[in-house]
What we know:
By secondary structure, the chain is α+β, with helices and mostly antiparallel strands. It has eleven helices and 22 strands. The chain has helices at about 5-25, 45-55, 95-110, 130-140, 305-315, 340-355, 385-395, 405, 415-420, 435-470, 475-485, and strands at about 70, 85, 115-120, 145-150, 160-165, 170-175, 190-195, 200-205, 215, 220-225, 230-235, 240-245, 250-255, 260, 265-270, 275-280, 285-295, 320-325, 360-365, 370-375, 375-380, 400. Helix 3 crosses helix 10 (about 435-470) and helix 6 (about 340-355) packs parallel to helix 7 (about 385-395). The radius of gyration is 26 Å and the shape is globular. Keywords: Membrane, Transmembrane, Transmembrane helix.
Amino acid sequence: xxxxxxxxxxxxxxxxxxxxxxxxxxxxxxxxxxxxxxxxxxxxxxxxxxxxxxxxxxxxxxxxxxxxxxxxxxxxxxxxxxxxxxxxxxxxxxxxxxxxxxxxxxxxxxxxxxxxxxxxxxxxxxxxxxxxxxxxxxxxxxxxxxxxxxxxxxxxxxxxxxxxxxxxxxxxxxxxxxxxxxxxxxxxxxxxxxxxxxxxxxxxxxxxxxxxxxxxxxxxxxxxxxxxxxxxxxxxxxxxxxxxxxxxxxxxxxxxxxxxxxxxxxxxxxxxxxxxxxxxxxxxxxxxxxxxxxxxxxxxxxxxxxxxxxxxxxxxxxxxxxxxxxxxxxxxxxxxxxxxxxxxxxxxxxxxxxxxxxxxxxxxxxxxxxxxxxxxxxxxxxxxxxxxxxxxxxxxxxxxxxxxxxxxxxxxxxxxxxxxxxxxxxxxxxxxxxxxxxxxxxxxxxxxxxxxxxxxxxxxxxxxxxxxxxxxxxxxxxxxxxxxxxx
Length: 487
């Protein structure tokens, strides 16, 4: 057979194979295909996730022998002990006591301040879910402003809570794909450089229309350490404020102006060597919630944070609760053994504890996700194993836990959220639309507030016991005080 004849024969075989594949695709069984078409534009998968998945087969599943009926009994903290729970229904309100106490103090003194950092993946892209958690807290506890905003994010164009425009000459480094950044990452997992000496590097912000975020309150720039100084020109209406950047500390801040503005533009001048992190917008009282979402994030990159830099951020921002909402990108690898993820996220939580001493931590589990099995969309077989792994490392690290899978309805719920009218989730059977995100945000707030209301009752019970003890005869006062100390 000559070469030309062989070529055409090979081509014919390939063509027939493609046609056969297309014809049989619809009748192939099990978890092979999904009708969902994912928008892969700008989707990143963090390098630590890929490395961890590669080592997956070397680990033993530590959740396999976890009994759902195992009783969890808490030790009293600050004299308060929440009722015992089982692993199946674990929420871990006990580990949110310091956060709840800050909310209680804020209720007593409205001039106080409570701050939440919400780390997530594409589920919180565009401020979805987070903006509804934020509005709920600001509705009940006060506060104005969207919190910390990065210079650039993938969702800048679609985010409604704040509008961002920026020049195309920013140099960006993200903790998803850079292990050794030029300068340590900021609290948002990014660092930016205005590295174009020939053209102005700029960013512009405008307040959105969301309730409690219709102005940019006390706009403040955060930037890092450098051996060279720089300048930034802030354009507010017809006025231009020229200010100097003095990058002497690990984390530095520069207030643009006091009070509130609707919009401003920042032009960075001769600042190419200075690491820029972003701007913070809040009125200084009430509750503020920062959205640190990143598409493709598994949560593992947080373990690369520089604890000293984070502590420097915390000295200014003072976080009381850190929420970790991940899982979407961890379901894509066909595994049901998530011991590797438990191990990695335990490291992540421990880094947060080191970086933000005393902060409460809340783990939000994966939501339901549907995949095609035998021509029918059903809950992906990896959802429950991943959710249980997330619950386990939440318990092991003494973190609160929200079971988003059961909260939205459990098995088959994503199909219902997609198929109902009006729909609350997208046709990828993974992500919520704006209507669904609002519902999820409300559900998250409701569970957190459920714990807070229970905390107030336990607190009142504790304080009532202390008051009664004080009124006892003097002979009993020594033992009462001793018990109080032990609590």
